[in-house]
C-alpha cells in the first residue's frame, strides 16, 4: 500500500481537482490521509465528503495541541499511515494517472533503495504546462544539494516507510518555511540509497495564493530571518554533525545576515545569528 499524505488549509476552490487526480490513479492500492489545518472555508467538508464516497480517503483535523502548519499536518498523517510506501503531496497539485503505478513498479524492482525520486512539471490557470529540467542526482550529491544544484520537490520522492522511521524529527514544526528542504537535506546528508526517474509524474499548480507566492510578499527582514531559522534547525536536527559542511557552504551568507540585521537595527536577531555563526566555525 502507498500512503499519500496531504495537509489541507483553505483550498476549497482547488482541493477537489487534486483529490480526483488521486482517485483516478491507475494503481489502486493506496490510502490518502488528509489533515485539515483549521480551515475556515469548506475544505474539511470536502475531505469528509471524499471519505464518505471512497474509503481509501481518511480525513482528520490537526490535533489542537500541535503547532499550526503543514509540517505538523504531515507528521500527524505519517503517524496514522498504514502503507509500506509514503508519498507526500500538496492540496493544490495534480497527480498524473500513472504516477503511483510507475513509482511502485520501479521501487519494487530495487528492494535496497530507500526511496525513488521523479520529476514534476508545473501548470497555470490556463492549463499551460511547463516542463522544467532539473537534476535529481550528481557525482557530488551532498555539496550539490546544499547549494541547490540538485533538489527534490515535495512530491518528488516516494519513500519506504521503514526508512523514514529512522528520523526522529521529520518535518520540523518550528519552521515557518523550508520544512521540506530542511528534512530532505537531512535525508541526503544521511547518505541514503535512492533511485531516480526522469519521467514527470505530477504537476505543480502555479497561482497567486500559493504559500510560496504569499511568503514572497513579506518584508526582507522576515524572509532573511526565515532562511536563518532553516540553517539553524538543519544544524540542530542533524545532531550538529555537519558544522564544517555548513560553514563551507553557508558561512559567508550567515555572516552577511549578521550585518543585514545590524543595519536594520535588529540587534537581538544579529546576536542570535552571530552565535550560530560561531557554532559552525
Would you tell me which CATH topology of the largest domain applies? Spore Coat Polysaccharide Biosynthesis Protein SpsA, Chain A
Task: Tell me the series of helices and strands, N- to C-terminal.
Answer: EHEHEHEEHEEHEHHEHHHH
Largest sheet: 9 strands, mixed
From the alpha carbons, calculate the radius of gyration and give it in angstroms.
19 Å
Structural class: alpha/beta
Overall shape: globular
CATH architecture of the largest domain: Alpha-Beta Complex
How many beta-strand segments?
9
- Report the CATH C-level class of the largest domain: Alpha Beta
Structural domains: how many: 2
How helical, in percent, are the residues?
40-55%
Tally of individual helices:
11
What amount of the residues lies in strands? 15-25%
Question: Distance between termini?
Answer: 45 Å
> Stretches where pLDDT falls below 50 for ≥5 residues?
none
The CATH homologous superfamily name of the largest domain equals Spore Coat Polysaccharide Biosynthesis Protein SpsA, Chain A
Average of per-residue pLDDT values: 93
